[in-house]
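Researcher: Good morning. I'm working through a list of sequences from a screen, and I'd like to move beyond sequence-only analysis. For each chain I'm collecting a predicted structure so we can compare shapes side by side. This is the next one on the list. No need for commentary yet; just the structure.
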Amino acid sequence: MNRSVVRDPIRILASREFVLLRAGVVAGLLLLGMVTGMLIARGHLDPMLLLGGAVGAMGLVVWRRVGRFEHGIVAIALTAGLLNFFTLPTGTESRIVISLLIAVALTGLWLLEMLVTTKRIALEPSPINKPLLAFVVVNVVAYLWSTLLRDPLVFVPSFFPLVQGAALLVNILLPLLALLVSNKIKEVAWLQRLAWIMVGLGVFKLVSIQFNLPTEAMIDNGSRGVFVTWVGAMVYSQALFNEKLSLWKRLLLLALLAAWVYWYFIKYVLWFSGWVPLMVACALITLMRSKKLFVAVALIALVYVGINFNFYSQKLYEAKVAQGDLQRLDLWQMNLEHVIQHPLFGMGPAGYTVYNMTYHPEDARSTHNNYFDVLAQTGVVGLIAFIWMFIVFIRVGIRSFRALARRRDFEAAFASATLAGCIGALVSMMLGDWVLPFAYNQTIAGFDNAAYTWIFLGAMVSLYQMIKARSDMRIGTMEEASHA
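Model: Good morning. C-alpha coordinates for this chain:
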Protein backbone atom coordinates (compact mmCIF):
# COMPACT_ATOMS: atom_id res chain seq x y z
CA MET A 1 0.00 0.00 0.00
CA ASN A 2 1.36 3.43 -0.95
CA ARG A 3 1.29 6.00 1.77
CA SER A 4 1.93 9.70 1.33
CA VAL A 5 3.90 10.80 4.35
CA VAL A 6 4.50 14.42 5.24
CA ARG A 7 8.02 14.32 6.58
CA ASP A 8 9.28 16.56 9.35
CA PRO A 9 11.92 19.02 8.08
CA ILE A 10 14.25 18.23 11.00
CA ARG A 11 14.19 14.49 10.11
CA ILE A 12 14.73 15.25 6.43
CA LEU A 13 17.77 17.32 7.27
CA ALA A 14 19.15 14.31 9.15
CA SER A 15 18.63 11.92 6.19
CA ARG A 16 21.07 10.88 3.46
CA GLU A 17 19.45 13.29 1.02
CA PHE A 18 21.19 16.14 2.79
CA VAL A 19 24.68 14.75 3.40
CA LEU A 20 26.31 17.49 1.34
CA LEU A 21 24.18 20.10 3.04
CA ARG A 22 25.23 18.86 6.47
CA ALA A 23 28.86 18.86 5.40
CA GLY A 24 28.46 22.44 4.22
CA VAL A 25 26.85 23.42 7.52
CA VAL A 26 29.74 21.87 9.48
CA ALA A 27 32.29 23.71 7.35
CA GLY A 28 30.33 26.92 7.72
CA LEU A 29 30.19 26.53 11.48
CA LEU A 30 33.96 25.99 11.63
CA LEU A 31 34.50 29.13 9.58
CA LEU A 32 31.99 31.04 11.72
CA GLY A 33 33.80 29.88 14.85
CA MET A 34 37.14 31.18 13.59
CA VAL A 35 35.69 34.54 12.52
CA THR A 36 33.80 34.86 15.81
CA GLY A 37 36.93 34.14 17.81
CA MET A 38 38.83 36.84 15.93
CA LEU A 39 36.03 39.38 16.48
CA ILE A 40 35.87 38.66 20.22
CA ALA A 41 39.65 38.89 20.53
CA ARG A 42 39.60 42.30 18.86
CA GLY A 43 36.68 43.52 20.99
CA HIS A 44 34.23 43.78 18.10
CA LEU A 45 31.71 41.21 19.37
CA ASP A 46 30.05 40.93 22.76
CA PRO A 47 30.26 37.34 24.15
CA MET A 48 26.74 37.83 25.60
CA LEU A 49 25.41 37.85 22.05
CA LEU A 50 26.93 34.44 21.43
CA LEU A 51 25.61 33.10 24.73
CA GLY A 52 22.11 34.32 23.90
CA GLY A 53 22.34 32.80 20.42
CA ALA A 54 23.49 29.44 21.79
CA VAL A 55 20.70 29.31 24.39
CA GLY A 56 18.18 30.32 21.75
CA ALA A 57 19.39 27.63 19.35
CA MET A 58 19.09 24.93 22.01
CA GLY A 59 15.62 26.16 22.96
CA LEU A 60 14.62 26.13 19.30
CA VAL A 61 15.68 22.52 18.84
CA VAL A 62 13.76 21.45 21.94
CA TRP A 63 10.67 23.43 20.90
CA ARG A 64 10.72 22.07 17.34
CA ARG A 65 10.56 18.50 18.59
CA VAL A 66 7.79 18.94 21.15
CA GLY A 67 6.02 22.17 20.25
CA ARG A 68 3.88 23.83 17.61
CA PHE A 69 4.03 27.16 15.85
CA GLU A 70 1.15 28.33 18.03
CA HIS A 71 3.36 27.86 21.09
CA GLY A 72 5.97 30.07 19.47
CA ILE A 73 3.42 32.81 18.75
CA VAL A 74 2.29 32.73 22.37
CA ALA A 75 5.96 32.88 23.41
CA ILE A 76 6.40 36.11 21.40
CA ALA A 77 3.40 37.68 23.17
CA LEU A 78 4.74 36.68 26.59
CA THR A 79 8.39 37.61 26.07
CA ALA A 80 7.43 40.95 24.50
CA GLY A 81 5.64 41.81 27.73
CA LEU A 82 7.68 40.10 30.42
CA LEU A 83 11.32 39.95 29.30
CA ASN A 84 12.00 43.60 28.51
CA PHE A 85 14.84 43.67 31.02
CA PHE A 86 16.95 41.12 29.11
CA THR A 87 18.31 42.17 25.73
CA LEU A 88 21.32 41.31 23.61
CA PRO A 89 23.87 43.83 22.29
CA THR A 90 24.32 44.76 18.64
CA GLY A 91 27.41 46.94 18.89
CA THR A 92 25.23 50.06 18.53
CA GLU A 93 22.83 51.86 20.87
CA SER A 94 20.04 49.55 19.76
CA ARG A 95 19.63 46.16 21.45
CA ILE A 96 17.97 42.91 20.39
CA VAL A 97 14.87 41.90 22.35
CA ILE A 98 13.97 38.26 22.90
CA SER A 99 10.61 38.53 21.12
CA LEU A 100 12.48 39.58 17.97
CA LEU A 101 14.76 36.54 18.16
CA ILE A 102 11.81 34.18 18.56
CA ALA A 103 10.01 35.83 15.63
CA VAL A 104 13.10 35.43 13.42
CA ALA A 105 13.41 31.76 14.40
CA LEU A 106 9.71 31.03 13.84
CA THR A 107 9.64 32.75 10.47
CA GLY A 108 12.79 30.93 9.38
CA LEU A 109 11.39 27.57 10.44
CA TRP A 110 8.12 28.30 8.68
CA LEU A 111 9.92 29.06 5.42
CA LEU A 112 12.09 25.96 5.87
CA GLU A 113 9.01 23.83 6.48
CA MET A 114 7.39 25.06 3.27
CA LEU A 115 10.51 24.68 1.12
CA VAL A 116 11.37 21.21 2.43
CA THR A 117 7.91 19.65 2.60
CA THR A 118 6.00 21.32 -0.23
CA LYS A 119 9.00 22.57 -2.30
CA ARG A 120 7.29 25.97 -2.69
CA ILE A 121 5.91 28.92 -0.76
CA ALA A 122 2.40 27.74 0.10
CA LEU A 123 0.15 30.20 1.94
CA GLU A 124 -3.41 29.83 3.11
CA PRO A 125 -5.68 31.67 0.63
CA SER A 126 -6.36 35.07 2.15
CA PRO A 127 -7.15 38.59 0.90
CA ILE A 128 -4.21 39.92 2.91
CA ASN A 129 -1.51 37.89 1.14
CA LYS A 130 -0.96 40.14 -1.88
CA PRO A 131 -0.77 43.54 -0.18
CA LEU A 132 1.31 42.23 2.70
CA LEU A 133 3.85 40.50 0.46
CA ALA A 134 3.88 43.55 -1.80
CA PHE A 135 4.89 45.71 1.16
CA VAL A 136 7.63 43.25 2.12
CA VAL A 137 9.01 43.20 -1.43
CA VAL A 138 8.90 47.00 -1.70
CA ASN A 139 10.99 47.26 1.49
CA VAL A 140 13.66 45.01 0.00
CA VAL A 141 13.61 46.95 -3.28
CA ALA A 142 13.82 50.25 -1.37
CA TYR A 143 16.84 48.95 0.54
CA LEU A 144 18.70 48.10 -2.68
CA TRP A 145 17.43 51.16 -4.54
CA SER A 146 18.52 53.57 -1.80
CA THR A 147 21.98 52.01 -1.58
CA LEU A 148 22.61 52.28 -5.31
CA LEU A 149 21.08 55.74 -5.81
CA ARG A 150 22.05 57.48 -2.59
CA ASP A 151 23.07 61.12 -2.99
CA PRO A 152 26.87 61.24 -3.38
CA LEU A 153 27.16 64.07 -0.84
CA VAL A 154 25.41 62.11 1.93
CA PHE A 155 27.73 61.12 4.75
CA VAL A 156 27.29 57.46 5.73
CA PRO A 157 28.75 56.41 9.11
CA SER A 158 30.59 53.08 9.25
CA PHE A 159 27.91 51.53 11.48
CA PHE A 160 24.98 52.63 9.27
CA PRO A 161 24.85 49.47 7.09
CA LEU A 162 24.24 47.44 10.27
CA VAL A 163 21.50 49.84 11.38
CA GLN A 164 19.87 49.81 7.95
CA GLY A 165 19.96 46.02 7.78
CA ALA A 166 18.31 45.79 11.21
CA ALA A 167 15.67 48.34 10.14
CA LEU A 168 14.92 46.30 7.02
CA LEU A 169 14.60 43.15 9.12
CA VAL A 170 12.06 44.76 11.47
CA ASN A 171 10.08 46.36 8.62
CA ILE A 172 9.55 43.01 6.90
CA LEU A 173 9.47 40.74 9.97
CA LEU A 174 6.50 42.45 11.63
CA PRO A 175 4.16 42.05 8.61
CA LEU A 176 5.45 38.49 8.16
CA LEU A 177 4.52 37.87 11.80
CA ALA A 178 0.90 38.73 10.95
CA LEU A 179 1.10 36.38 7.97
CA LEU A 180 2.53 33.62 10.17
CA VAL A 181 -0.27 34.01 12.72
CA SER A 182 -2.96 33.98 10.03
CA ASN A 183 -1.53 30.77 8.55
CA LYS A 184 -0.79 28.84 11.74
CA ILE A 185 -3.61 29.67 14.14
CA LYS A 186 -6.67 27.72 13.05
CA GLU A 187 -8.44 27.11 16.36
CA VAL A 188 -10.43 29.57 18.45
CA ALA A 189 -8.72 28.24 21.58
CA TRP A 190 -5.47 29.91 20.51
CA LEU A 191 -7.26 33.21 19.94
CA GLN A 192 -8.63 32.91 23.45
CA ARG A 193 -5.15 32.34 24.84
CA LEU A 194 -3.82 35.42 23.08
CA ALA A 195 -6.74 37.58 24.26
CA TRP A 196 -6.45 36.58 27.90
CA ILE A 197 -2.66 36.89 27.81
CA MET A 198 -3.23 40.50 26.74
CA VAL A 199 -5.67 41.07 29.59
CA GLY A 200 -3.24 39.45 32.04
CA LEU A 201 -0.37 41.64 30.86
CA GLY A 202 -2.60 44.68 31.30
CA VAL A 203 -3.30 43.70 34.92
CA PHE A 204 0.42 43.08 35.48
CA LYS A 205 1.23 46.55 34.12
CA LEU A 206 -1.40 48.29 36.26
CA VAL A 207 -0.32 46.57 39.47
CA SER A 208 3.34 47.33 38.74
CA ILE A 209 2.80 51.07 38.20
CA GLN A 210 0.15 51.45 40.90
CA PHE A 211 2.43 50.10 43.63
CA ASN A 212 5.69 51.25 42.00
CA LEU A 213 7.00 47.68 41.90
CA PRO A 214 10.36 46.70 40.37
CA THR A 215 8.39 44.40 38.05
CA GLU A 216 7.59 47.48 35.97
CA ALA A 217 11.00 47.05 34.33
CA MET A 218 9.82 43.68 33.02
CA ILE A 219 7.03 45.20 30.96
CA ASP A 220 8.07 48.82 30.44
CA ASN A 221 9.19 48.50 26.81
CA GLY A 222 6.44 46.10 25.77
CA SER A 223 3.67 48.25 27.25
CA ARG A 224 4.36 51.30 25.10
CA GLY A 225 2.49 52.42 22.02
CA VAL A 226 -0.53 50.43 20.86
CA PHE A 227 -0.23 47.96 23.76
CA VAL A 228 -2.48 50.30 25.76
CA THR A 229 -5.11 50.20 23.01
CA TRP A 230 -5.02 46.43 22.56
CA VAL A 231 -5.46 45.80 26.30
CA GLY A 232 -8.37 48.25 26.49
CA ALA A 233 -10.01 46.83 23.36
CA MET A 234 -9.77 43.23 24.59
CA VAL A 235 -11.06 44.08 28.06
CA TYR A 236 -13.94 46.27 26.86
CA SER A 237 -15.11 44.00 24.03
CA GLN A 238 -15.23 40.93 26.27
CA ALA A 239 -17.24 42.89 28.85
CA LEU A 240 -19.74 44.17 26.28
CA PHE A 241 -20.08 41.25 23.87
CA ASN A 242 -19.18 38.02 25.63
CA GLU A 243 -22.34 37.06 27.49
CA LYS A 244 -20.88 33.59 28.04
CA LEU A 245 -18.86 35.19 30.83
CA SER A 246 -20.55 35.48 34.22
CA LEU A 247 -21.81 38.90 35.26
CA TRP A 248 -19.16 39.37 37.95
CA LYS A 249 -16.38 38.68 35.45
CA ARG A 250 -17.76 41.23 33.03
CA LEU A 251 -18.08 43.81 35.79
CA LEU A 252 -14.50 43.06 36.81
CA LEU A 253 -13.39 43.68 33.23
CA LEU A 254 -15.22 47.02 33.19
CA ALA A 255 -13.48 47.96 36.46
CA LEU A 256 -10.16 47.07 34.86
CA LEU A 257 -11.00 49.27 31.86
CA ALA A 258 -11.91 52.13 34.20
CA ALA A 259 -8.52 51.81 35.92
CA TRP A 260 -6.81 51.63 32.52
CA VAL A 261 -8.58 54.78 31.32
CA TYR A 262 -7.73 56.55 34.58
CA TRP A 263 -4.02 55.93 34.20
CA TYR A 264 -3.77 56.88 30.55
CA PHE A 265 -6.44 59.60 30.25
CA ILE A 266 -6.16 61.22 33.68
CA LYS A 267 -2.78 60.31 35.14
CA TYR A 268 -0.67 60.34 31.93
CA VAL A 269 -2.86 62.64 29.86
CA LEU A 270 0.14 64.32 28.22
CA TRP A 271 0.96 61.04 26.48
CA PHE A 272 -1.42 61.33 23.53
CA SER A 273 -0.17 58.07 22.01
CA GLY A 274 -1.59 56.25 25.03
CA TRP A 275 -5.12 57.59 25.39
CA VAL A 276 -6.16 58.92 21.97
CA PRO A 277 -6.01 55.53 20.12
CA LEU A 278 -7.50 53.85 23.21
CA MET A 279 -10.48 56.20 23.22
CA VAL A 280 -11.01 55.76 19.48
CA ALA A 281 -11.01 51.96 19.87
CA CYS A 282 -13.41 52.05 22.84
CA ALA A 283 -15.76 54.42 20.99
CA LEU A 284 -15.89 52.03 18.03
CA ILE A 285 -16.54 49.02 20.25
CA THR A 286 -19.38 50.93 21.95
CA LEU A 287 -20.89 51.84 18.58
CA MET A 288 -20.63 48.24 17.35
CA ARG A 289 -22.43 47.03 20.46
CA SER A 290 -25.26 49.60 20.58
CA LYS A 291 -25.98 52.98 19.01
CA LYS A 292 -27.97 54.01 22.08
CA LEU A 293 -25.08 53.08 24.36
CA PHE A 294 -22.73 55.04 22.11
CA VAL A 295 -24.89 58.17 22.39
CA ALA A 296 -25.07 57.82 26.18
CA VAL A 297 -21.30 57.36 26.56
CA ALA A 298 -20.64 60.24 24.14
CA LEU A 299 -22.85 62.57 26.21
CA ILE A 300 -21.02 61.60 29.41
CA ALA A 301 -17.69 62.24 27.68
CA LEU A 302 -18.86 65.65 26.44
CA VAL A 303 -19.99 66.64 29.94
CA TYR A 304 -16.60 65.62 31.36
CA VAL A 305 -14.69 67.55 28.70
CA GLY A 306 -16.97 70.55 29.19
CA ILE A 307 -16.27 70.61 32.92
CA ASN A 308 -12.52 70.36 32.28
CA PHE A 309 -12.50 72.52 29.16
CA ASN A 310 -9.94 75.01 30.42
CA PHE A 311 -7.45 72.27 31.23
CA TYR A 312 -7.75 70.57 27.84
CA SER A 313 -7.86 73.78 25.81
CA GLN A 314 -5.10 75.71 27.55
CA LYS A 315 -2.88 73.85 29.99
CA LEU A 316 -2.67 70.70 27.91
CA TYR A 317 -1.96 72.66 24.75
CA GLU A 318 0.71 74.73 26.50
CA ALA A 319 2.34 71.59 27.86
CA LYS A 320 2.53 70.04 24.40
CA VAL A 321 4.02 73.25 22.99
CA ALA A 322 6.62 73.27 25.78
CA GLN A 323 7.54 69.69 24.90
CA GLY A 324 8.13 70.74 21.30
CA ASP A 325 5.51 68.43 19.84
CA LEU A 326 4.28 71.06 17.38
CA GLN A 327 7.75 71.13 15.83
CA ARG A 328 6.85 67.84 14.17
CA LEU A 329 5.20 69.82 11.39
CA ASP A 330 8.59 71.27 10.51
CA LEU A 331 10.15 67.79 10.65
CA TRP A 332 7.53 66.42 8.24
CA GLN A 333 8.11 69.28 5.83
CA MET A 334 11.87 68.76 5.99
CA ASN A 335 11.56 65.06 5.20
CA LEU A 336 9.08 65.68 2.40
CA GLU A 337 11.74 67.80 0.70
CA HIS A 338 14.00 64.73 0.59
CA VAL A 339 11.15 62.46 -0.53
CA ILE A 340 10.54 64.73 -3.53
CA GLN A 341 14.07 63.90 -4.66
CA HIS A 342 13.48 60.14 -4.14
CA PRO A 343 9.75 59.68 -4.81
CA LEU A 344 9.46 56.07 -5.97
CA PHE A 345 11.21 54.01 -3.27
CA GLY A 346 12.33 56.67 -0.83
CA MET A 347 15.66 56.63 1.00
CA GLY A 348 15.53 53.04 2.22
CA PRO A 349 15.00 51.61 5.72
CA ALA A 350 16.25 54.18 8.27
CA GLY A 351 17.72 55.99 5.26
CA TYR A 352 16.36 59.48 5.77
CA THR A 353 18.45 59.76 8.95
CA VAL A 354 21.75 60.08 7.08
CA TYR A 355 20.16 62.64 4.76
CA ASN A 356 19.06 64.72 7.75
CA MET A 357 22.47 64.34 9.41
CA THR A 358 24.14 65.58 6.22
CA TYR A 359 21.80 68.38 5.14
CA HIS A 360 20.18 69.33 8.49
CA PRO A 361 22.69 68.38 11.21
CA GLU A 362 21.19 70.91 13.62
CA ASP A 363 17.76 69.23 13.53
CA ALA A 364 18.36 65.62 12.43
CA ARG A 365 15.40 63.97 14.14
CA SER A 366 12.92 61.26 13.24
CA THR A 367 9.41 62.18 12.09
CA HIS A 368 7.59 60.53 15.05
CA ASN A 369 4.95 59.47 12.52
CA ASN A 370 4.71 56.04 10.92
CA TYR A 371 3.09 57.32 7.74
CA PHE A 372 5.91 59.76 7.09
CA ASP A 373 8.43 57.07 8.08
CA VAL A 374 7.00 54.65 5.52
CA LEU A 375 6.91 57.36 2.85
CA ALA A 376 10.50 58.47 3.54
CA GLN A 377 11.83 54.91 3.73
CA THR A 378 9.92 53.23 0.89
CA GLY A 379 8.60 56.13 -1.21
CA VAL A 380 5.19 56.55 -2.78
CA VAL A 381 5.17 52.90 -3.90
CA GLY A 382 5.76 51.70 -0.35
CA LEU A 383 3.13 54.00 1.16
CA ILE A 384 0.54 52.81 -1.38
CA ALA A 385 1.31 49.17 -0.52
CA PHE A 386 1.15 50.00 3.20
CA ILE A 387 -2.24 51.74 2.92
CA TRP A 388 -3.53 48.95 0.66
CA MET A 389 -2.53 46.40 3.29
CA PHE A 390 -4.42 48.18 6.07
CA ILE A 391 -7.48 48.73 3.91
CA VAL A 392 -7.63 44.97 3.39
CA PHE A 393 -7.13 44.36 7.13
CA ILE A 394 -10.08 46.65 7.87
CA ARG A 395 -12.26 44.96 5.24
CA VAL A 396 -11.46 41.55 6.74
CA GLY A 397 -12.28 42.84 10.21
CA ILE A 398 -15.60 44.29 9.06
CA ARG A 399 -16.58 41.04 7.35
CA SER A 400 -15.76 39.04 10.47
CA PHE A 401 -17.72 41.32 12.75
CA ARG A 402 -20.76 41.39 10.45
CA ALA A 403 -20.78 37.60 10.32
CA LEU A 404 -20.75 37.45 14.14
CA ALA A 405 -22.68 40.64 14.99
CA ARG A 406 -25.74 38.81 16.37
CA ARG A 407 -23.70 36.52 18.57
CA ARG A 408 -22.75 37.32 22.14
CA ASP A 409 -19.72 35.16 22.73
CA PHE A 410 -15.93 35.25 22.63
CA GLU A 411 -15.69 35.28 18.84
CA ALA A 412 -17.95 38.31 18.48
CA ALA A 413 -15.97 40.10 21.18
CA PHE A 414 -12.66 39.20 19.55
CA ALA A 415 -13.88 40.37 16.14
CA SER A 416 -14.94 43.76 17.53
CA ALA A 417 -11.71 44.12 19.55
CA THR A 418 -9.40 43.40 16.63
CA LEU A 419 -11.31 45.68 14.25
CA ALA A 420 -11.30 48.51 16.80
CA GLY A 421 -7.66 47.82 17.65
CA CYS A 422 -6.75 48.04 13.96
CA ILE A 423 -8.40 51.47 13.71
CA GLY A 424 -6.69 52.51 16.93
CA ALA A 425 -3.34 51.45 15.46
CA LEU A 426 -3.99 53.63 12.40
CA VAL A 427 -4.57 56.59 14.73
CA SER A 428 -1.46 55.80 16.79
CA MET A 429 0.71 55.93 13.66
CA MET A 430 -0.02 59.66 13.43
CA LEU A 431 1.46 60.09 16.91
CA GLY A 432 4.59 57.96 16.77
CA ASP A 433 6.43 55.00 15.27
CA TRP A 434 4.32 52.52 17.22
CA VAL A 435 3.44 50.06 14.43
CA LEU A 436 6.80 50.00 12.61
CA PRO A 437 9.46 51.12 15.12
CA PHE A 438 12.00 53.48 13.57
CA ALA A 439 15.66 52.55 14.00
CA TYR A 440 16.64 55.96 15.41
CA ASN A 441 13.65 56.52 17.66
CA GLN A 442 12.31 53.40 19.37
CA THR A 443 15.18 51.39 17.79
CA ILE A 444 14.63 47.74 16.94
CA ALA A 445 13.81 47.15 20.62
CA GLY A 446 10.42 48.65 19.76
CA PHE A 447 9.63 45.23 18.28
CA ASP A 448 8.35 44.31 21.77
CA ASN A 449 5.35 46.64 21.73
CA ALA A 450 4.84 46.68 17.94
CA ALA A 451 4.55 42.88 17.85
CA TYR A 452 1.12 42.98 19.53
CA THR A 453 -0.42 44.96 16.69
CA TRP A 454 0.79 42.52 14.05
CA ILE A 455 -0.07 39.43 16.12
CA PHE A 456 -3.66 40.60 16.56
CA LEU A 457 -3.97 41.71 12.94
CA GLY A 458 -2.92 38.20 11.96
CA ALA A 459 -5.34 36.76 14.52
CA MET A 460 -8.12 38.87 13.02
CA VAL A 461 -7.43 37.26 9.65
CA SER A 462 -7.34 33.82 11.33
CA LEU A 463 -10.82 34.35 12.76
CA TYR A 464 -12.06 35.43 9.33
CA GLN A 465 -10.63 32.27 7.78
CA MET A 466 -12.35 30.11 10.42
CA ILE A 467 -15.69 31.84 9.81
CA LYS A 468 -15.30 31.44 6.05
CA ALA A 469 -14.36 27.75 6.40
CA ARG A 470 -17.45 27.08 8.51
CA SER A 471 -19.63 28.93 6.01
CA ASP A 472 -18.18 26.97 3.08
CA MET A 473 -18.73 23.73 5.00
CA ARG A 474 -22.41 24.58 5.63
CA ILE A 475 -22.92 25.43 1.94
CA GLY A 476 -21.27 22.14 0.93
CA THR A 477 -23.47 20.17 3.34
CA MET A 478 -26.61 21.87 1.98
CA GLU A 479 -25.60 21.11 -1.59
CA GLU A 480 -24.98 17.45 -0.76
CA ALA A 481 -28.36 17.24 0.95
CA SER A 482 -30.14 18.81 -2.05
CA HIS A 483 -28.47 16.35 -4.45
CA ALA A 484 -29.42 13.44 -2.22
